[in-house]
Amino acid sequence: MAARKVLTGARVVLPTGTVADGRVIVDERGRIAGHAHEGDATVDLSGHWVVPGFVDMHNHGGGGASFTSGSVADVLKGVQTHREHGTTTIVASTVTGDMDFLAQRAGILSELAEQGDIAGIHFEGPFISPCRKGAHDESLLRDPDPADVRKLMDAARGQARMFTLATELPGGTDSVRLLAEHGVIAAIGHTDGTYEQTVEAIDAGATVATHLYNAMPALGHRTPGPIAALLEDERVTVELINDGTHLHPAAFQLAFHHAGADRTALITDAMDAAGFGDGEYMLGTLAVEVKDSVARLVDGGSIAGSTLTLDRAFKRAATIDRLPVEDIVRAISANPAKLLGVYDRVGSLEPGKDADLVVLDATFTLVGVMRKGEWVIAPQEAQRG
């Protein structure tokens, strides 16, 4: 059981705005409380920011471990790596594989979701376009037949949170409807669809754009393609990878400002090398080389996920993109929590919610992480009380 504590002196970002010299009270259950008790330990965080723990809805691994192929211990190692970088809630994303293999992985990952180690499963592939396959094995791709989608949903035992689909392929729109009926996010991505086909999929129930811009036709003035359809529709949240590699800063800012802070989700799309380092890795069945923190397929050179962690995405958004901190918090915590259906527990600093939070210094560098009232990384300031 967590010890009661009071975090004081920081700029605390709440849903209603930032409170200067604010405080966050953590109770013995590891939740945010409304009132302090006499004798509660105090942590002085003067000069720092306190923001909600980050929520990553698109992540393939980290710490040298893969969510697609690693053992349970490997998956937990990857989860822990991202926790140490502020991601207190994480969805495990798979990459394209054989259907039976993916069903088996869904069974393993669903147990971790039931235990609360991850927040569910995201199937990125195999239901994507060979024209926009990115770092997915083309030989294993298939059309999004609703029966196949249902097979993976069933294997996930209620823990499937999102499927990325090229909705222009045969069965795409029907699969979107199936997912929507079961409360699972249908995300449009790795698509070669037209503007009109994308609009049709959104009308059928698709609500997320998987890493907008990446693995889809470029925005054109005569053929606007999926990017325009996804950006303009108020029903769609757009994922953005803010690592400086996947997106030019101007493209990032165009999307963020057009969709708005309430329709943007900052993600990592991280692979094994996140928080681990350069070297050679496998992403599903494909060999990847990570050099200077950029992951690319050995064969062909396509970008193969990222080595991003969300603390770096936050800092970049604040210091390079110059976004308001409150907007970054919505995109990195609240919005994905709402999409995943867990906003009643995480995604904001409010009484009754889990005490999941990140402490940042004045330069937006991470100095502390708390999950459910326990420090994952404790700030260096001395505790007193």
UniProtKB/TrEMBL annotation:
<keyword id="KW-0119">Carbohydrate metabolism</keyword>
<dbReference type="Pfam" id="PF01979">
    <property type="entry name" value="Amidohydro_1"/>
</dbReference>
<dbReference type="InterPro" id="IPR011059">
    <property type="entry name" value="Metal-dep_hydrolase_composite"/>
</dbReference>
<dbReference type="InterPro" id="IPR006680">
    <property type="entry name" value="Amidohydro-rel"/>
</dbReference>
<feature type="domain" description="Amidohydrolase-related">
    <location>
        <begin position="49"/>
        <end position="376"/>
    </location>
</feature>
<dbReference type="InterPro" id="IPR032466">
    <property type="entry name" value="Metal_Hydrolase"/>
</dbReference>
<protein>
    <submittedName>
        <fullName>N-acetylglucosamine-6-phosphate deacetylase</fullName>
        <ecNumber>3.5.1.25</ecNumber>
    </submittedName>
</protein>
<dbReference type="GO" id="GO:0008448">
    <property type="term" value="F:N-acetylglucosamine-6-phosphate deacetylase activity"/>
</dbReference>
<comment type="similarity">
    <text>Belongs to the metallo-dependent hydrolases superfamily. NagA family.</text>
</comment>
<keyword id="KW-0378">Hydrolase</keyword>
<dbReference type="InterPro" id="IPR003764">
    <property type="entry name" value="GlcNAc_6-P_deAcase"/>
</dbReference>
<keyword id="KW-0479">Metal-binding</keyword>
